[in-house]
Design goal:
The protein is α/β, with parallel strands linked by helices. It is built from 11 helices and 17 strands. The chain has helices at about 15-25, 40-45, 120, 135-150, 180-190, 235-240, 290-300, 375, 390-400, 445-460, 525-545; strands spanning about 5-10, 30-35, 70-75, 80-85, 195, 245-250, 255-260, 265-270, 275-285, 325-330, 345-350, 365, 400-410, 420-425, 430-435, 465-470, 510. The strands form 3 sheets. Strands 1, 2, 6, 7, 8, 9 and 17 form a 7-stranded mixed beta sheet that branches. It has a 6-stranded antiparallel beta sheet with strand order 5-11-12-13-10-16, covered by helices on one side. The protein has a 4-stranded mixed beta sheet with strand order 4-3-15-14, with helices on one face.
Length: about 550
C-alpha cells in the first residue's frame, strides 16, 4: 500500500528530531518521524555493563545493529579501516527512539554567550574555520527555556556566577551532592573557585507524571529503570503522538532525500523494518540524524542540480566535524570517597570556560560518572600494570578511593575534519557508508593541558595523596563524543550549509535540526543546546508553514 502524503518527515528521534517533530505536530502539520532503531526499555538490557553505551564490548544495547551498520575511518597516516558500532572508532550514535537521550549522562548545559561569537571574542586562529554563529545566545534563550521545562531539568543556577542570563528559573531543584561532591565542594571553595550542582535532565522530584530519580550508579550508558531520566522518548515524542498528527515509524533506514528538477525535496526513499524499499512523500524534510548521519544522508542525496549531494554545491556538507576533546585528572585518596550514590557526576566549576589567558575557549570541569568495574580497568596511572596481580590489587583496593575530574574542551573547528561518503564501501542496504577523516586542530592540546592541570589542582586540594593527568586533544579524528558542526549555519551559502533557521541555503524545504548546525561546540555537553535548536528550527518551520511558503 502506498504511503499517505504528509506535510513533513523528520529523520531521527533524538535531541533535535524529537523537539522538531513535536513543534510541527502541535502546529497542525502531519508528520512521519523516522527512527532507524526501535522503542527500548530498561528491562530489555538492564544494567549489563558489557553492552552499555560506554563499553559496548558485546555490541550496543541501543543500537545500531552491528550486522547492518559500519563506517570507514581514515587515520592521520591515510590508513583506512572499516569499523563497527561496538568499536571506539565508530564514534557511536545510538539507534533507538530517543537516540542518545535514552542512555546519556543527561547533563543540561546552556552554551555561554561567548560560545556564539567565538571569532569576535578571540580573533582568527590559524588553520581553523573558527566563526561566529549567525544567531546569538539571546535568540536561542527562549528555546533553552522551552527545553528545560518541556523535557525537564533539575539545577540551581544562582550558585553558578558564570551562568548566562535566563528569563525563567529551572523547573526542579538540584540534586544533593554525593560524598565526592561534598569533598570537592569544600576544596573548590578553598581555591576561590565557584562550585555548583550540575544541571541535569533528570527528575529530582516527581515531574510531568514520572517519578524522581533514585540515584542508581548504573545511569550513564543505560536506560532508566524508573523512567526518571528525561529524554525525547518519554517527553516530547509522546506529546507529538498524542496530537494525532505524528506517526513514529521505527526500524526504518532513510537512504535518500528525493529532489525534483527544480531542486526541491519531494520526500524520502527508505527501507522499512522488513528491509523493503519504500517512498514517503512530504512537503518538508527535516534531517536530525546526528552530525555524522545527517551529513551522510545529504551527501547521498544527489540530483542534476546537486551532483555532490543535497545543499553541497560549495563543498561544506560534512566539513568542520567537531566533538569534544575530553581531558582529565585522577586522584587516589587514603579513605573511601565512594558512597554508591549515582549517577556520580554532581558538582562542576566553570571558572576556566572563557577568558583564560592564552586559551581560546575552555570548558567545564566536573566529577565523573560512576564507572562500572570493567570501565574502571582503564583508570590506571601511567606505567601501571594492565594485567596480573598488581592490576587486580589496584582494582580491588582503589575503586572506592578514586575521584576523577574531567571536562570537555571546546575544540577549534577545521575544514579537513570531516564526514564524507565512501566511494566503495556500502552498508547492509547498499547505501554508501560514512567516511570519517581529518584531525583535531593542533591548538586543542594546549587547552586540554590547561584544563587537566586545573583538575589536578582541585584533586590535590581535596586531599588526594597521588594524582595523574590524562590529557586530551591529541592528533587524531574528532567527533568521538558530542558530534557537531558538519552542516553549520551561517549567512553566506559559500561558507555554510544552512541559514540561521536551519534551512538549506539552496533547498528551501529541507531543514537540519541537530548538532550538525553547531558552528562551534562550546565547552559543554551539547544535549540541551541541540534540544533548543530542535525547538527553534521546528518553531520557524511552523511559522513559515502558516504563511504557506513551504507548501508544494
Amino acid at each position: 500500500m502506498r504511503n499517505r502524503h504528509v506535510n513533513a518527515v523528520v529523520i531521527g528521534s533524538g535531541a533535535g528530531g524529537g523537539p522538531a517533530a513535536k513543534e510541527l505536530a502541535n502546529n497542525g502539520m502531519t508528520v512521519v518521524l523516522f527512527e532507524r532503531g526501535d522503542w527500548q526499555a530498561f528491562d530489555e538490557h538492564n544494567d549489563d555493563e558489557l553492552c552499555s553505551q560506554r563499553t559496548t564490548v558485546l555490541g550496543n544495547a541501543y543500537g545500531p545493529d552491528q550486522d547492518k551498520h559500519w563506517r570507514v575511518v581514515v587515520d592521520s597516516r591515510g590508513n583506512e579501516r572499516i569499523v563497527y558500532p561496538h568499536e571506539g572508532g565508530y564514534n557511536n550514535n545510538a539507534a533507538c527512539v530517543g537516540s542518545g537521550t535514552l542512555s546519556y549522562g543527561a547533563m543540561a548545559w546552556r552554551f555561554m554567550p561567548e560560545d556564539f561569537r567565538m571569532k569576535s571574542e578571540y580573533g582568527h586562529v590559524e588553520g581553523s574555520t573558527l566563526e561566529d554563529w549567525p544567531i546569538s545566545y539571546d535568540d536561542l534563550e527562549p528555546f533553552y527555556t522551552q527545553a528545560e521545562w518541556e523535557i525537564g531539568v533539575a539545577g540551581a543556577d544562582p550558585q553558578n556566577p558564570f551562568v548566562p542570563d535566563r528569563k525563567k528559573p529551572l523547573p526542579m531543584p538540584p540534586f544533593e551532592y554525593n560524598l565526592e561532591g561534598r569533598i570537592l565542594f569544600e576544596a573548590a571553595k578553598r581555591k576561590g573557585w565557584h562550585p555548583f550542582p550540575i544541571p541535569m535532565l533528570r527528575n529530582s522530584i516527581p515531574y510531568a507524571g514520572r517519578p524522581a530519580c533514585y540515584r542508581m550508579r548504573t545511569c550513564v550508558g543505560f536506560a532508566c529503570p524508573v523512567n526518571a531520566k528525561c529524554g525525547t522518548q518519554n517527553t516530547v515524542i509522546p506529546v507529538a503522538m498524542a496530537t494525532g498528527n505524528c506517526e513514529v515509524r521505527t526500524r526504518c533506514q532513510v537512504a535518500e532525500i528525493m529532489l525534483d528538477d527544480k531542486g526541491r525535496a519531494t520526500g524520502v526513499k527508505y527501507f522499512d523494518r522488513f528491509n523493503k524499499p519504500q517512498i514517503q512523500t512530504a512537503d518538508v524534510v527535516v534531517v536530525a540524524g546526528s552530525a555524522t548521519e545527517t551529513a551522510r544522508l545529504l551527501l547521498n542525496s544527489k540530483s542534476k542540480l546537486f551532483p555532490a549531494g543535497a545543499g553541497n554545491n560549495y563543498d561544506w556538507v560534512g566539513r568542520n566535524l567537531q566533538g569534544h576533546a575530553y581531558t582529565a585528572a585522577f586522584g587516589l585518596f587514603d579513605d573511601e570517597v565512594y558512597d554508591d550514590v549515582g549517577p556520580g557526576a554532581c558538582i562542576a566549576i566553570c571558572d576556566f570556560n572563557h577568558h583564560v589567558d592564552g586559551i581560546v575557549g575552555g570548558g567545564l570541569l566536573a566529577n565523573e560518572f560512576i564507572p562500572m568495574p570493567y570501565l574502571y580497568t582503564g583508570t590506571r596511572p601511567p606505567g601501571a600494570a594492565g594485567w596480573g596481580k598488581e592490576h587486580k590489587d589496584f582494582q580491588r583496593n582503589q575503586f572506592k578511593k578514586t575521584i576523577a575530574v574531567m571536562g570537555p574542551f571546546q575544540e577549534i573547528p577545521n575544514f579537513e575534519s570531516r564526514v564524507s561518503v565512501d566511494p566503495a564501501v556500502k552498508d547492509f542496504w547498499g547505501i554508501p557508508v560514512a567516511r570519517l577523516s581529518g584531525s583535531r586542530h593542533p591548538y586543542d592540546r594546549k587547552g586540554c593541558e590547561m584544563m587537566s592541570a586545573r583538575a589536578e589542582e582541585w584533586l590535590l586540594e581535596a586531599g588526594a595523596h597521588f594524582t595523574w593527568q590524562r590529557i586530551g586533544g591529541g592528533p587524531g579524528l574528532s567527533g568521538g563524543q558530542h558530534q557537531a558542526g558538519t552542516c553549520r549555519m551561517g549567512n553566506d551559502k559559500k561558507t555554510s550549509v544552512t541559514n540561521r533557521f536551519g534551512q538549506l541555503h539552496e533547498i528551501d524545504n529541507v531543514f537540519v535540526a541537530d548538532g550538525s548546525l553547531v558552528v562551534t561546540n562550546g565547552g559543554f555537553n551539547p544535549a540541551l543546546t541541540i534540544m533548543a535548536l530542535g525547538f527553534y528550527v521546528g518553531h520557524h518551520i511552523a511559522d513559515m508553514w502558516k504563511g504557506t511558503r513551504l507548501k508544494s
